[in-house]
Design brief:
6-stranded parallel β-sheet; 17% strand; binds NADP nicotinamide-adenine-dinucleotide phosphate; single chain
Length: 300
């Protein structure tokens, strides 16, 4: 249990509601900042303005998946209040305070470092990325169904990249009867692609393999779907780019060639906010419990 542990939850979207639920279940003391328009009442959690928080008792801060902007602003869909997290807020927290965020940027890293606190980027964790690949894969299927007039079954699908997302997506399309090719650069990954029953493509030779593509899913956060490759794809191809912004597709060239190419960020939060929130809540609560145990051990 996290009885009495003071956690400040600052901003976020529907995913954060699952975090609140889980922490209430574990009996933490919760301050909600940026939730004044949230209709749902949470017994055991107190809505407060940022300047009303007693940071001296705060032992953990939970930020949204996006962390902060490069100016320190924290996004929230539950308030019109402008929330800016600063160095001073962090310095005022309990010495053992840890800041949890999905991802981070230079601003967040700098204020956490200069206040001598700890930062945990939950989306850097392998387990979170693997769990998240499930709603990402479902969102990808949804986008492909919405944007094509053919079945996935028997369609020619090229998956670019074979990391955590690429693997889940390839398996799903294969399971639905598509002809799946997967492009990756490491020979070890290509061997795994082969073992799983998909057609492996050496990434540098991708241009030779896209002539009959119906759907191409990119998961590599680097410019891989270049003009040269797009010029070999049929204009009927649909490209869904899942890689983090700005994606890995030459969108300008795709548009010029008449290929429909879409950047599709944040699918878990869009198609399955509850599940996506539970993924975060489960990992966060595990980390907070571990931290609590360590502190208790040290105090013995
Ligand atoms: P990952 O496990 O790190 O996989 C990335 C893949 O890209 C690996 O196969 C990696 O190959 C390859 N790669 C990376 N940089 C490369 C480069 N410069 N050239 C060639 N290959 C390169 O990442 P992931 O968890 O699958 O996530 C993939 C992307 O999707 C990330 O950008 C992530 O932020 C994004 N994402 C988007 C959504 C969404 O809703 N759209 C959801 C989750 C994740 P090596 O192993 O050879 O480096």
């Amino acid at each position: 249990m996290l009885t009495g542990k003071h956690v400040a939850i600052i901003g976020g979207d529907a995913r954060q509601l699952e975090v609140i639920r889980k922490l209430i279940e574990l009996d933490a003391k919760i301050s909600l900042i940026g939730f004044d328009q949230l209709d749902e009442g949470f017994a055991g959690a107190t809505k407060v303005q940022l300047d009303q928080v007693d940071f001296s008792t705060v032992e953990a801060i939970m930020l949204p998946v996006s962390g902060t902007s490069s100016e320190g602003e924290v996004e929230t869909i539950f308030s019109n209040e402008k929330i800016v997290l600063t160095n001073d807020h962090l310095k005022a927290t309990s010495k053992q305070c840890t800041v949890y965020s999905g991802i981070s940027n230079q601003y967040l890293k700098t204020i956490v470092h200069s206040s001598n606190r700890k930062l945990v980027e939950l989306f850097e964790r392998n387990d979170v990325a693997i769990y998240n690949s499930i709603p990402t894969m479902e969102g990808t299927l949804m986008m492909v169904i919405q944007n094509t007039d053919i079945t996935i079954h028997r369609s020619n699908v090229v998956i670019v990249g074979f990391g955590r997302v690429g693997m889940s997506v390839a398996r799903a399309f294969h399971g639905l009867g598509a002809n799946v090719k997967v492009a990756a650069r490491e020979s070890e990954l290509l061997a795994r692609v082969y073992e799983m029953g998909f057609q492996p493509i050496e990434l540098s030779l991708l241009a030779n393999e896209v002539h009959n593509t119906d759907v191409c899913i990119n998961t590599i956060p680097a410019k891989v779907l270049t003009g040269n490759i797009l010029s070999k794809m049929p204009t009927r191809s649909l490209i869904i780019d899942l890689a983090s912004k700005p994606g890995g597709t030459d969108f300008r060239y795709a548009e010029k060639r008449g290929i429909k190419a879409m950047l599709a960020p944040g699918l878990p939060g869009i198609v399955a906010p509850k599940t996506a929130g539970q993924i975060i809540a489960n990992v966060l609560s595990k980390l907070l419990l571990e931290e609590q145990n360590t502190i208790e051990e040290e105090q013995k």
